[in-house]
Design a protein that fits this description.
This protein is about 50% helix and about 10% strand. It is α/β, with parallel strands linked by helices and about 300 residues long. The protein has a single domain (about 5-85, about 125-309), classed as 3-Layer(aba) Sandwich (Rossmann fold), CATH 3.40.50.300. A 5-stranded parallel sheet has the order 2-3-1-4-5, with helices on both faces. The structure holds zinc ion. Zinc ion (ZN) binds next to helix 2.
């Protein structure tokens, strides 16, 4: 059974940075977010190597390999994302990350209703073929999927096709809400509610995985002590230590947020929320998610020293 490493987190948690750091390990094969959603215009979408996806040597090899194995493959739709197809199918997939009872019944329905079952099997199969192909091209024994979303992890787990270890990546909710607010052009309240919803869904899905197969790490620690955190992840994943996180792989072919195109791949802690958020923003966040954020290890008071460092 192939082993997968899955990064589970809300968006804007630093998963693309973590993917690059992990991709430098010779035993890890990855393309970042295998769900390959939100690519926008595929004609102009650039791989992290800088080439347009359709011109990238690696992705051309993938396309040829998929066609040789008889699988359909289109850069505009990898066929790997569970949140595709009719609305009711997407709804059942989303329910998979809700409470245990809903998760169980939605999983049952997805497997009982013939049209759902065939769609689900098709997506699982496409992920399987693509994972094996990418691992054979890159040469890694462990496949890293940085797709993040808890609904996808649920479906991968329920399929029982892979041995899955989960890296549960946390980040201060104020940082995530601030990035979300700017990226989606919404107010802080909306962003904080969205973060709370996704983070809780991540927590619920992580709780369903055997404890020894979940490793919780913080984005802030990844930036401040990269070697220590990477050592912890490699040991968790049963891999040998790999030195020099600063030499993050620049020749990888990764899909994900725009950070993938940043040539330097420097490990810089993003703390813009500390200056972006006004006192009234912090109050709004506090009212919605303050207690929850603290329960994740992020505290309310910010000392001057912390701001300066
Ligand atoms: Zn590329």
């Amino acid at each position: 059974m192939r082993e997968l490493l899955y990064i589970l987190s809300p968006s804007f948690s630093g998963s693309t940075l973590l993917t690059f750091l992990l991709a430098a390990h010779p035993d890890i094969a990855t393309v970042g977010e295998l769900k390959a959603s939100a690519m926008g215009d595929v004609e102009s979408y650039r791989c992290s190597c800088g080439a347009r996806l359709q011109q990238c040597d690696f992705w051309r090899k993938v396309k040829t390999g998929m066609e040789k194995s008889g699988a359909k493959f289109d850069f505009a739709d990898f066929g790997t994302h569970f949140n595709s197809g009719p609305a009711w199918f997407k709804r059942l997939v989303r329910l998979g990350a809700k409470n245990a009872l809903l998760s169980y019944s939605s999983s049952q329905l997805l497997r009982i209703l013939p049209s759902c079952r065939s769609r689900l099997n098709r997506i699982i199969e496409q992920n399987g073929i693509l994972i094996d192909l990418i691992a054979s091209i890159q040469g890694g024994c462990l496949f890293l999927d940085g797709s993040k979303d808890p609904e996808r992890l649920t479906q991968l787990l329920v399929s029982r096709r892979w041995k899955i270890r989960v890296i549960h990546l946390l980040r201060d909710g104020r940082g995530i809400a601030n990035s979300y607010r700017k990226h989606h052009n919404v107010d802080l309240k909306t962003a904080a509610i969205e973060w709370l919803r996704t983070d809780r869904a991540c927590l619920r899905v992580a709780a369903r995985v055997a404890r020894q197969n979940v490793l919780t790490i913080k984005y802030e620690d990844v930036c401040q002590e990269p070697q220590r955190v990477l050592d912890e992840i490699f040991s968790f994943a049963g891999l040998a230590r790999n030195a020099s996180p600063n030499g993050a792989a620049t020749l990888e072919h990764v899909l994900g947020n725009s950070m993938r195109l940043n040539g330097s791949k420097s490990i810089l802690l993003d703390q813009k929320w500390r200056t972006d958020l006004l006192p009234q923003d912090l109050e709004i966040f506090e009212a919605i998610a303050g207690d929850y954020n603290r329960s994740r290890g992020y505290h309310k008071s910010v000392s001057k020293e912390a701001i300066l460092t």
